Predict the structure of Polygalacturonase.
Amino acid sequence: MKCGAGIFLYRRRFLLPPPFYLVGIIYEITLALFLFFCPYFYPLLHSTLFFPLCFQTLLFLFLGAEGEGNRPMKRLVTVLLLIVSTALEGNGEDDHVPCKPKALDPRPHSVSILEFGAIGDGKTLNTVAFQNAVFYAKSFADKGGAKLYVPSGKWLTGSFNLTSHLTLFLERGATIIASKDYAHWIPLDPLPSYGRGIDVPGGRYCSLIYGQNLSDDGIIDGQGSVWWDLISTHSLNYSRPHLIELVASNNIIISNLTFLNSPAWSIHPVYCSNIQIQNITAHAPTELPYTSGIVPDSSEHVCIVNSNISTGNDAIVLKSGWDQYGITYGKPTANVHIRSVYLQSSFGAGLAFGSEMSGGISDIIAEQLHIFNSTIGIELKTTMGRGGYMKNIFISDAKLENINTGIGMTGYFGSHPDEKYDPNAVPVVGNITFENVIGANITIAGNFSGIVDLPFTPIWLSNVTFSMSSKSSPWWFCSNVMGISEEVFPEPCPDLQNMYSNISSGFSSLHPSSNYVSSA
């Protein structure tokens, strides 16, 4: 059997030293008009922070600084910069719109799994029945496609591969149960952007389901306990399978399903485009650190909306390949919109980025987040050797409850696939915005640890308020980061209060070297 098958918002708020506000204002207006009448230069400015940052940094270095200035003038500069960002967005090749709930197109043909001898008693193995049903449904691919109907019952199966133009429809009360016998799971080669499995060197097991357009009110139960035992005892021959893995697929809807007890990740779209994940529940035991929820990986135009995810490791985490393999494959995760989600992660983050991000992660909006009972609320993680970038990430309207660390960023997280990685491949992290974030019972407000001599910058914090679980401080820990904050409580580190206070020491970080991976 063969297995396989955002919106972008610039929020640049670069503040000039007081004597030279007028110069900065004239510059920003000129840039806005230039982009409006000369849109062909948009990709150059869209893909790098160099142009605006370099101008304003040079202004500081050669003309000097005389304090922070007054708030009204800062707001004026902010408004003008937003005008520039509007020009940038309006002249882009793709005008992204918010993702909205989508309905599946009706299929003119339908087939029931019962027609192929499947028995829903939770004991009979139905792998062959699913394989034969999919093979039959494939004959309707050029006739509008087909719907594979799974009625109420417990349907035990090993891994199987869906096909294009097929909707897997689970009736309410239907549960697809994964076999606990790993002989029913086919080993595969590692993904090219990873070079090895996520758990052990070598290959990986085929995920339970490969397919597209999965829908309705059924349950997919991975019965992952056997896999968690294998990894905890270091007994795996191949890396664990996921519940659903979509490889190089387009125009996919996953809707109104419940995913339970995944051996590894619940939903893993990799090398995909135009993915809609809506109204789903993903749950695995939160007391075990072995599972993640939704993992968009080297994929673009992904929407995740109206969903509830609780896992041991990261609930939603964006990735794009591992070290030299991800750099070589060179496919980023971009244009992702996450909205109206409830997230819980006992050992990881509710929303995470990385640490495997060597193909790049950019142009992300995450809003209306409710993250609770987690180790970290929101985390960006990487390490030397990754290369790649994480930039243009906008997070707003987030509510955090009972969290150890509200916001985390680290440049020292994760291991390497093998000894062939390039230790000089530097990850670039910048243009990250946190806006309208509130938290209750937070132990540490923020823990920011960038890379020595290459700070994470710029970081924006606006209207961020945490109610701390303890009255003792410090509540913020910062090193090798630069940013600007406004209306933040508790008061953040000095490095996050005025990016220009130590801009000269970080000037070299604004100029990517040949070791960096930049966006296309």
The helical segments are 21-37, 42-46, 50-63, 71-90, 127-137, 225-232, 323-329.
